[in-house]
TrEMBL record:
Naturally occurring in which organism (per UniProt): Rivihabitans pingtungensis
Upper lineage: Bacteria, Pseudomonadati, Pseudomonadota, Betaproteobacteria, Neisseriales
InterPro entries in the cross-refs: ClpP/crotonase-like_dom_sf (IPR029045), CtpA/B_N (IPR055210), PDZ (IPR001478), PDZ_sf (IPR036034), Peptidase_S41A (IPR004447), Tail-specific_protease (IPR005151)
Record-annotated PDZ domain positions: 90-158
SUPFAM superfamilies named in the record: ClpP/crotonase (SSF52096), PDZ domain-like (SSF50156)
Listed GO biological process terms: proteolysis; signal transduction
One cellular component (GO) term of this entry: outer membrane-bounded periplasmic space
Stated name of the protein: Carboxyl-terminal processing protease
Chain intervals with Basic and acidic residues compositional bias: 406-456
Gene3D superfamilies (UniProt xref): 2-enoyl-CoA Hydratase, Chain A, domain 1 (3.90.226.10), 2.30.42.10, 3.30.750.44
């Protein structure tokens, strides 16, 4: 089978949530393993429990509900990313990979029976309402989420655009629950955003790995070179709070900066088709209908352009694949804090007209054989998540794969995934943010400023990333500052 056909239907999505970044796997025709070996004793117990509920439960319960809940429990008990998808959820999942779906725009996971926010998606109702990574969703409208599966929570947050829903949140540092009214919308996520940070230094942010992310990255690179009118001196690739997405898109983004045929990632699972080696080759990232390589018109200098990859605790799955590949090949300096740590691959297996299941089928490994499962990727230069406001740094609340119930173990024994000890950036005085002109951010005072608008004067990590690029310009041969020098804090 063509490598892309084997891979494009497999996802490296981050966490089950109100949007999901997965694709459909063509493994449905595969015969189930050990199909003739059934645990008869356990099945008798199951049928006895089923009968007791049907006979003795306080209210009548439909067979379909009992079976569906049993399937939900069977899958959710495996790990945080395996789940049952009813036909509606199955359809929504497919829409999500194409960059458009209905809902609030929020990535969620489960913790202690509650729903935890992994990250809001930019330019969505949840993002504009100020929902933050680490928030616990206590109620959806008047319904407590305790005991609800992730899929049930997703269903309650989804709905027709224009309809309203109220989330009750618990936030660290707040003594009272936060009640946040939201209006559902058609969520059209723009996965690649770019601009010039300053003369000769470009910035590209990838918010999620979708179907068109690779070609959009190629267009962004071409636009930056055209806008600057001369070769760039450096580029920041911002993967912070990127929850992941399609595996072939992660390969494509890596391929933009790596030599042709360089190993990007390999996967290992029990089934033969869960074992793949994916390289920086067009066959591994091009969509079937595309006829020419997306990077055909990309300037050749991109392959050697000084590069910094920004990561944080919301950098997960497909975005960790990119960071890990570029780090292992010493193609980029990774700056930020340890990533989320989702090192597993989910396949979506159709169940006829009954929806499908999202099942963890493999672990993935960086080119040097590192598994980041439940450990994350340690950056080359550690820079804490903070905003520079009046000279004070405010660290953010972190959540990672290891915090999720039933998370998979790391096959390397939960050893920290890092090439070597990562130096911390100098803790010198940080520049104070200039007073913000609220009028420039919009007419409504209720509309929060976008914290992802790239501004090195207020963003500590971006400030240090830019400094790393500038240090590379003065080192002999453009050597990495990780070994040769620490990035100097701005004065």
């Amino acid at each position: 089978m063509h490598t892309l056909q084997k891979m494009a239907l497999v996802s490296a999505g981050a966490v089950a949530g109100a949007i999901l970044s997965l694709s459909i796997n063509a493994m449905a025709d595969k015969e189930p393993a050990n199909a003739t070996t059934l645990p008869l004793t356990e099945l008798r117990t199951f049928t006895e429990v089923f009968g007791r509920i049907k006979q003795d439960y306080v209210e009548p319960v439909e067979d379909k509900k009992l079976i569906t809940e049993a399937i939900n429990g069977m899958l959710s008990g495996l790990d945080p990313h395996s789940s049952y998808l009813d036909p509606e959820a199955f359809k929504e999942l497919r829409e999500g990979t194409q960059g458009e779906f209905g809902g609030l725009g929020i990535e969620i996971g489960s913790e202690d029976g509650l729903v935890k926010v992994i990250a809001p998606i930019e330019d969505t109702p949840a993002f504009r309402a100020g929902i933050k990574s680490g928030d616990l969703i206590v109620k959806i409208d008047e319904v407590s989420v305790r005991g609800l599966s992730i899929n049930e929570a997703v269903k309650r947050m989804r709905g027709k655009p224009g309809t309203k829903v109220t989330l009750t949140l618990a936030r660290k540092g707040e003594t009272k629950p936060l009640v946040v009214p939201l209006t559902r919308a058609v969520i059209k996520t723009k996965s690649v955003k770019f601009k010039m940070l300053e003369a000769d230094y470009g910035y590209i942010r990838i918010t999620q790995f979708q179907e068109h992310t690779t070609e959009n990255l190629a267009q962004a690179l071409e636009a930056l070179y055209k806008e600057n009118a001369k070769p760039l001196k450096g580029l920041v690739l911002d993967l912070r709070d990127d929850p992941g997405g399609l595996l072939n898109s992660a390969v494509g983004v890596s391929a933009a900066f790596l030599p042709k045929d360089a190993l990007v990632v390999y996967t290992d699972g029990r089934a033969p088709d869960a074992k793949m080696r994916l390289t920086a080759t067009p066959a591994n990232y091009m969509r079937e209908q595309s006829k020419q390589d997306y990077f055909q018109r990309t300037p050749a200098e991109v392959k050697t352009l000084p590069l910094v990859v920004l990561v944080n605790s919301g950098t997960a799955s497909a975005s960790e694949i990119v960071a890990g590949a570029l780090q292992d090949h010493k193609r980029a300096v990774v700056v930020g804090v340890k990533t989320f740590g989702k090192g597993s691959v989910q396949s979506v297996l159709p169940l006829g007209n009954q929806g499908g299941i999202k099942l963890t089928t493999a672990r993935y490994y960086t080119p040097n054989g590192r598994s980041i499962q439940a450990t994350g990727i340690t950056p080359d230069v550690v820079v804490e998540e903070a905003t520079l406001s009046g000279g004070a740094a405010t660290p953010s609340l972190r959540i990672r794969e290891a915090d999720l119930e039933h998370h998979l173990s790391n096959p390397n024994g939960d050893k920290e995934s890092k090439p070597e000890a990562a130096p911390k950036a100098d803790k010198a005085e940080k520049p104070a943010a200039k007073p913000r002109d609220d009028k420039s951010k919009g007419d409504s005072k209720d509309e929060p400023a976008n914290p992802r608008d790239p501004n090195p004067k207020t963003d500590n990590q971006l400030n240090q990333a830019l400094t790393v690029l500038k240090v590379q310009q003065i080192l002999p041969g453009g050597a990495s500052p990780v070994q040769d020098a620490k990035p100097a804090a701005s004065k």
